[in-house]
Amino acid sequence: MTAHIFHPTVLREYDVRGIVDETISEADARALGQAVGTTVKRNGGRRICVGYDGRLSSPSLSDALVNGVLSTGIDVDMVGLGPTPMVYYAVFELDTDGGVMITGSHNPPDYNGFKIMVGKKPCFGEAIQKLGVMANSADFERGEGKRTDIDIFDRYLDRLARDVDFGDFKVMWDPANGSAGDVITELVKRLPGEHIVINGEIDGTFPNHHADPTVEENLEQLKDAVAEHGYDIGLSFDGDGDRIGAIDSQGRVVWGDQMLAIMAGDLLRELPGAPIIADVKASQALFDRIAELGGEPVMWKTGHSLIKEKMVELGSPLAGEMSGHIFYKHKFYGHDDAMYAGIRFLNAITVQGGDLDALKDGLPSVANTPELRFDCGEVRKFEVVEEVKARLLEAGANMSTIDGVRVQTADGWWLLRASNTQAVLVARCEAADEAGLSRLKTALTKALAESGVAAPNDM
Q1: Is residue 2 scored above 90 in pLDDT?
Q2: If one looks up domain 16-151 in CATH, what number appears?
Q3: Cβ–Cβ < 8 Å for 13, 87
């Protein structure tokens, strides 16, 4: 077999991702399929499931990957077009020995990639790098696997709807032309209340807006629709349906950490004292809120695979990220399913009075920035964070280095970390008031400038 070398930027911390026909190709997909199939086979497995999102390049990348897997003697259950969580669900429902989702997630249309499970766990970090080493050495198993097309759509819908326990809300849903569109369009028919789906057609060109609910401008169409129809809640989803965003009836964004705070208010009634995990980008107000509710707040690294691993380690029933990944182990499987998170969010609102606006008003008032993302080269982004960290250590700063640097000052905190999914740096600041926030922004700007990086304009 021929050795295969991946572009150095595509084997990332918790997935494989790049620009189609520039840094990632069908040859990459086939080699990755061979590496995944070989890994599963050597672990004693026989079968995996595969699905793909609505990007224009996904069907061909899927076929190439499947061919690679089959060439190792591993069978493939093809679940087809749908959101990433449907593949995660299929791994459990079909009891396969792993799974691969072909998706570019929230990246622009010219990106694509692969999210991988080996067994019932995510493949990430060193395990992803080992796939690259295996491909480079052409150390693959050989065989003739069998492909079986399986329609799991209705079973998945049944599972999502099983835990519905909310009132007659009026909800606007925006799948953003991503791969969750068909699921959401059918799911709402099974829900109480009134529901409208906008941008439900799966379209890999994302014609209406970018499919990333963490960027407020991507929520403008949803805000307009909620206002026009007088609806209670708007829910937005990313390109592959594993991240969720929300707005209330006034069009105010309910950020990922605020959603998690509301969900914690429900969950901790059933499981007092439970550990709830949030990533380093989350507000201090969230961690304080979890503690006030009698839970155990845990700060951890950003990244869906890293969060899932930590949940298993701690036995956590609920976790979340600022980016809108929400993970329920309570009554579910522990992975990030944005449709299921939406249902549990509506349940949590119901249990706590049924008024999202009031719950939003009841959250602590802080002055903070949204998640700030600004361009920085794939290699340079990590160098900048290390340079900033070294200077802060020398200065004796009070900081956490769990993931990048989260610096605590008398005013509050600021964060700088390198994204594992894009060529960007990620920053955030939070203080008790606007004056303190201004000082934190100045400190962050200075730290970036010392590494020759300009702070984002929207900071």
Answers
A1: no
A2: 3.40.120.10
A3: no
Kindly give the residue spans of alpha helices, DSSP state H, lying in 175-255.
181-187, 220-229
Closest to 263 in 3D by CA, of 324, 186, 194: 324
- For the chain, the structural domain boundaries read 16-151, 155-362, 367-449
Identify which of 13, 8, 17, 11 has the alpha carbon closest to the alpha carbon of residue 304: 13
Catalytic, out of 25, 57, 58, 105? 105
Residues 395 and 317 sit within 8 Å (Cβ to Cβ): no
To 5 degrees, how large is the angle CA 66–CA 69–CA 70?
A: 85
The answer to whether residue 325 scores a pLDDT higher than 90 is: yes
Please state which CATH number belongs to domain 155-362. 3.40.120.10
Render pLDDT for 392-425 as a digit per residue (tens, 0 to 9): 999 999 999 999 999 999 999 999 999 877 789 9
Q: Do domains 155-362 and 367-449 have the same CATH topology?
A: no
419 flagged as catalytic: no
Longest dimension (CA), the chain: 65
The answer to whether 442 and 429 are in contact (CB under 8 A) is no
Report pTM: 0.94
Confirm if 193 and 235 have CB atoms less than 8 A apart: no
Count the neighbouring beta carbons within 10 Å of the beta carbon of residue 450.
12
Cα–Cα distance between 251 and 220 in angstroms, integer?
Answer: 9
Cα–Cα distance, 41 to 134 (Å, whole number): 13
Flag whether pLDDT at 457 surpasses 80: no
Q: Are 184 and 197 in contact (CB under 8 A)?
A: yes
Sign of CA dihedral 47, 44, 130, 5: negative
Q: How far apart, in whole angstroms, are the C-alpha atoms of residue 192 and residue 195?
A: 9
User: Has domain 367-449 been given CATH number 3.40.50.970?
Assistant: no
Mutual angle of helices 284-292 and 256-270, in 10-degree steps: 10
| 220-223 own/partner pairs: CB under 8 Å, 24+ apart | 221/174, 222/172, 222/174, 222/198, 222/247, 223/247, 223/251
Q: Give yes or no for a contact between 56 and 205, defined as CB atoms under 8 angstroms apart.
A: yes
